[in-house]
Amino acid sequence: MEEVPVPGLTLIDDWIGKSDEDQLLGLVDAGNWRNDLKRRVQHFGYRYDYRARSVSLADHLGPLPGWLAMLAGRLVDGGAFSKPPDQVIINEYLPGQGISAHIDCVPCFGETIAILSLGGSTVMKFQCSANGAGRELTLPNCSLLTLMGPARYDWLHAIPARMSDVIDGVKTPRIRRVSLTFRSVNIAA
Ligand SMILES: O=C(O)CCC(=O)C(=O)O
Asked: Among residues of the chain, what percentage have pLDDT more than 70?
């Protein structure tokens, strides 16, 4: 596939260190996993209704716990958000699991999507909704992906459901990956 740039996409390697990663995985696994999708998820701040593709005031779960609020603060300090994101979805991907191509709900969420990868690396696929142009990107563990502008609004992203990825030309078996996706919820007052 011809590699084209995805405007508005930023990937920061080693956004956290290895010991932070281990600590975060421990905190994630102390939480309550939901089993209503093919993969396990946890929702914080607001519950997202996958079927209705909506978030409403009735979905408010409360403030982010301290450890997620601290990461949300770092995202503001780094310039990804102008105020702390108030919603986090944690996704767990076992080998063979993925997420289908989508653009995050536009009325539900604000202009930045930030994804922190823990555990395994994965390959994310991007496709421009206007002209079909494609791009694959490896998301290493400890990296932070941010999607803004066209990357947020005009490009679909997906993780193919497969057992291995080709990373730097090498077939790499998947291991468990956990992602933390930070968003700001748009709710009309
Ligand atoms: O897990 C990821 O890296 C992607 C998550 C995602 O796209 C989503 O939750 O909408």
From this structure: 97
Question: Residue 28: which region, alpha, beta or left (left: phi > 0; alpha: psi -120 to 50)?
Answer: alpha
| pLDDT 10s digits, 76-135 | 999 999 999 999 999 999 999 999 999 999 999 999 999 999 999 999 999 999 999 999
Within 13 A of 188's CA, how many CA atoms are on the CB side? 2
Residues pairing with 117 in the sheet: 179
Say yes or no: domain 9-183 is CATH 2.60.120.590.
yes
Give the mutation target among 15, 91, 118 for probing the ligand 1 site: most ligand atoms within 8 A of CB. Answer: 91
| Ligand 1 residue neighbourhood (C-beta within 6 Å) | 89, 91, 99, 104, 115, 157, 179, 181
Domain assignments of the chain as residue spans, ordered by start: 9-183
